[in-house]
Design brief:
The complex is a heterodimer.
Chain A (H helix, E strand, L loop, with lengths): L7 E2 L6 E2 L17 H12 L5 H8 L5 E2 L7 E3 L13 E6 L6 E9 L4 E9 L2 H4 L8 H35 L3 H29 L5 H35 L13
Antiparallel strand pairs in A: 1-2, 3-4, 4-5, 5-6, 6-7
Chain B lengths: L2 E7 L18 E10 L9 H14 L1 E5 L22 E4 L2 H5 L16 E4 L10 H6 L5 H6 L6 E7 L6 E5 L2 H17 L3 E5 L1 H8 L2
Parallel strand pairs in B: 1-8
Antiparallel strand pairs in B: 1-2, 2-7, 3-4, 3-5, 5-6, 6-7
Helix pairs in contact in B: 1-5
């Protein structure tokens, strides 16, 4: 942004200019003689404020993570179709985009066992998972049910936190447009990375263990999301800098022959 | 050899059926259950059972159920996406169309997201607002169903726990008698076993 100067942090020696695009608009008082303190301060300010990690972790709770080789099934933490005001009693879903084919981890009365338990409900996914409707999910199912339940809500909080931090980083950046490009590209690449690595993780897990598939798929989504966010941000910053430093010189006009 | 049975319970009391407070404050509640041998691996209503229930219901009146022009294939819908307004309904006396209500992804029977209204024979389709319909999917659906009587509704069918059974609330004694007779007739025509059970026996029939 024209008219702004880069902030320099640290003592008289060992200055380093901050990243022109993402440095916060803040003045840091010159430190006293202590060198270690100066180094710490520089390290802290050099790291651009970013919501990448909370955003990428949180988005795993809302993104459909594809399961390759299952004709459109994906891992999700929310059902398709109508949901009662009190919410669904299921927390982990392997379902197609309509929800008509699904395997879901449910808690409630099981008509087969005549007890309230953690069990699987499924429709048209037996060939993929080999789990019949009403099959008890056991202790692992209970753990997965609770984990999915809490992650669903914690993930949404993390997404909001990530967006807020990213918004603040744009406002505070010396080049807000550059930072905004980085953030938007980061979000898009996080989504793509989540889908890609999450799907790879789901494919690695054997289809007969849906809980393992969910764990690896969600873990892959988080890793892919984080990698995608920072890769996308970095690329967007490079592209912005390249575009900003590119000048076009008009050719001299010549008379037509 | 496969074998299918349909059975009903006329005085349900248990909360585990997830059909709201029982017995209902108004009308009469009937549980409708089914079982196939060997046990199917898929949940939901088996197509042949759905066909029998659909034929029984259409023999006593016009059936109106939730449908949606916003298909789940386009991302589905949630209450946040759609405000109050006129309900998206299908109203018919065709059994084949009614059977689709048990397999509609937008209003999944297996997630207790579907409801079927029974109107008196010859009645015009009930003119309802969406909140009136959605109230039938909540715990206090008995009261919401009773409020539909002025619209010509004589009964409401709703899925019970996991869609493994159905709760039929009839608002008049005639409607209860007619629906029970229709279910028995259509079950026998389909060569299904038919029985009226106590609640304990009803629960026992589902056991593994």
């Amino acid at each position: 942004m024209a008219g702004r100067t880069h902030t320099h942090v640290g003592a008289a020696q060992g200055h380093e200019p901050l990243d022109a695009g993402t440095s916060a608009l803040m003045a840091t008082p010159a430190p006293a003689a202590s060198r270690p303190q100066a180094a710490d301060a520089r390290q802290t300010v050099d790291i651009p404020m970013s919501g990448g990690i909370p955003y990428a972790v949180g988005q795993a709770s809302v993104v459909r993570i594809p399961i390759p080789g299952t004709s459109g099934l994906a891992i999700e933490l929310s059902p398709r179709g109508w949901v009662p005001k009190t919410g669904s009693t299921s927390t982990l879903f392997f379902q197609d985009v309509t929800g008509n084919r699904h395997l879901r981890l449910d808690y409630g009365y099981n008509v087969r066992t005549k007890t309230i338990d953690y069990h699987w409900n499924q429709k048209r996914t037996f060939s993929e998972f080999g789990i019949p409707d009403h099959a008890p999910a056991g202790t692992a199912g209970r753990v997965a049910y609770q984990a999915a339940r809490y992650f669903k809500y914690a993930g949404r909080v993390l997404i909001v936190a990530g967006i807020v931090v990213d918004a603040i980083s744009i406002v505070q950046a010396s080049k807000p447009l550059r930072r905004a490009s980085q953030v938007v590209a980061g979000w898009a690449a996080a989504w793509a990375g989540c889908k890609l690595v999450g799907a790879g993780g789901a494919a690695l897990a054997t289809p007969t263990t849906p809980l393992g598939m969910a764990a690896v798929g969600v873990g892959g989504c988080i890793i892919g999301g984080i990698g995608g966010y920072y890769g996308g941000s970095m690329l967007a910053g490079e592209v912005y800098d390249w575009a900003e430093g590119t000048f076009f010189t008009p050719l001299p006009e010549v008379a037509a022959p | 050899m496969s074998r299918t049975s349909i059975f009903v319970c006329l005085e349900p009391r248990r909360a585990e059926w997830q059909l709201g407070a029982l017995p209902p404050s108004t009308g009469r509640m009937m549980l409708i259950g089914w079982r196939e041998e060997p046990l199917p691996v898929d949940g939901g209503v088996p197509p042949q059972v759905a066909a029998v229930i659909a034929r029984a219901l259409t023999s006593i009146g016009r059936i109106t159920f939730l449908s949606s022009p916003v298909h789940a294939s386009a991302g589905g819908w949630s209450p946040f996406k759609r405000g109050p307004g006129r309900a998206d309904l299908t109203s018919t006396t065709d059994p084949a169309t009614v059977a689709q209500a048990f397999d509609a992804a937008e209003h999944p029977w297996w997630m207790q997201g579907q409801v079927l209204l029974i109107s008196a024979p010859g009645a015009v389709p009930a003119d309802l607002e969406r909140p009136q319909l959605l109230a039938l999917l909540e715990n206090k659906w008995n009261e919401a169903a009773d409020a539909l009587a002025p619209f010509g509704v004589i009964g409401v069918l709703r899925p019970g726990v996991d869609g493994d059974l159905a709760g039929l609330l009839t608002l008049t004694a005639d409607a209860e008698r007619a629906s029970l007779a229709a279910l028995e007739r259509e079950s026998r025509l389909a060569s299904f076993d038919w029985s009226v059970l106590t609640e304990a026996a009803f629960a026992e029939r589902y056991g593994g």
